[in-house]
User: Fold this.
Amino acid sequence: MKQAFFRLARRTCWLLLIGGVVVTRPWELLPDQWKPWAPLRLDHPMTVVTRTKLARLHQDPNECLGILASLPRNSLDYLPLEDYTPVESCPLSNVVRVKSTGLEFGASVTLSCPLLVRWLMFEQQALQPLALKHQGSPVTTVEHFGSFACRNVYGRATGRRSQHSTASAFDVAEFHFGNGDAANVLNDWGAEDDHANSAFLRAVHAEACKYFGTVLGPDYNQPHANHFHLDTSNFNLCR
Assistant:
């Protein structure tokens, strides 16, 4: 008799608990950046869920382009490109041609759409706040070494393809500020006589690791002495 009573009591408790969850819907209290079903927005803080949504953009070009299309008019100067093969064995898909975001690029550049979304989040949430903190002025222009290059990693004859082969990597060399100053990766990364530029570059590198799959800089190896490599891979490498 007691066992039957306890079984009934347990079932009743479970039913009440389940009923309470269904009625109160506590998952709706989660911020959107923690909701797997909520659309990705550029102002979402970087969480595990946000990273998952960013990774999903590689398989859903329409969702990625929809994020770009949702931005205010004139805040982003870009052109979605049809899939094409600029070099044999390196087809490009889900890419856009970009002239400017909240800042100007020294030259227009073709980026994969998921890489551009990451860059926009990084620019708004990290890059510009760091520029104001260290330089007292926003970044106005970024000089770069481009994105697309049909090659293997380090240009080796064999091995896996570089992220550059799909325009999913971006090499940044210099930042120009509204006050006329500039921070150059090659010249200022370890500059002892220009602490502001060096501190800015090191802070940018550290923050970029939260937004990109791989971030490489001067401390990684000599080929990266003059730029930051930013890509959308899943290696979570920050050097």
Observations:
- The chain has a mean pLDDT of 89.
- The chain is about 35% helix and 20% strand.
